[in-house]
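Re: beginner question about structure tokens

> Can someone show what the tokenized structure looks like for a real chain? I only ever see the sequence side.

Sure, here's an example I had lying around. Input first:
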Amino acid sequence: MTPELTMLACTLVLALLQILLPALLRTLETGPQYNMGTRDSAGPPVGKVTGRLQRAQANLFETLPLFATAVLIVHVTAQESALTLYGAALYLAARVLYLPLYAFGIPVVRTLVWCVSVAGLLMLYWAILFAS
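And the corresponding structure tokens:
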């Protein structure tokens, strides 16, 4: 498996973690009865950290298909290079850092780290479109 595919696999583990963390906190907030029920009513308000984790999850899920597709295109077309390696590494590292920054409510640094993840995506796209 290429390093880029390994980083994609690690990102998928991160995505699973980002599904489980807010679900766990929400269960602690509402109790298991509500969580296992029909949830026809809105339930109690979401806590601050749970809400942040939900928003961080949504944010990851906005860019994850773009990252996964880029890594798969790189792999299928055998365009692995230093640029794709560093692009995938930047994306993954930034997404890992983004989660606690968002959970702890650190605004400016969180946005800068998000920009780093986008830079990693752009490196992958550059390699796909312009590197031969």
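Each token stands for a local structural state, so reading them left to right follows the chain. The mean pLDDT is 95.
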